[in-house]
Amino acid sequence: MIRDGIYYALAFTAGGALVSWLAGPRPAMLLFALGAFCGWFFRDPERLVPVGPVAVSPADGRVMQVVQEGDRQTRIRTQVEKRGRSCERWLPLWRSLVVNQGESPELRQRVVGLRERLVGRLELMYAPELSTLSDSERRHLLIVLEALVDVESWARMQEFFGLSFDEACAAWTQAIDRLLPPTPLAA
Q: pTM, whole model, 2 decimals?
């Protein structure tokens, strides 16, 4: 359970106990119900994230369908912009994870899992282009794409080369477009 949830649940439950002691159990039912709701709402169940080319819902729901929309340039631009924003937001945490992963098997596994999910997203986004490659070529291209759009790659473009967000996105977009094989014609 998330720490804040424990405090809310305990506060409502303690309030319910106090009201129950002073006025009886019936008036305290709402406070007990709110305490139970906080316990349920702030739970933090262990979630297993599948490895591979899968889409994962950020909540407990299910992803029912993934639709490839847009032409090649739209898909590349969308993936690059989302990845760039993600890299900017998570860079400090990512560096901490990478530096400390040797000290903890759990951290090491988390880094591996994050990289595997990135490869899965790349497979989904560029499925039409990747479908034209042999298994070996596909694997090699995914390795190169993952290295290209790595968090440290993003940081290097901005910190070392001084690129703005838009310039870094343009650099990634151009590189990805050159690396991907031609998009097959729709049947």
A: 0.61
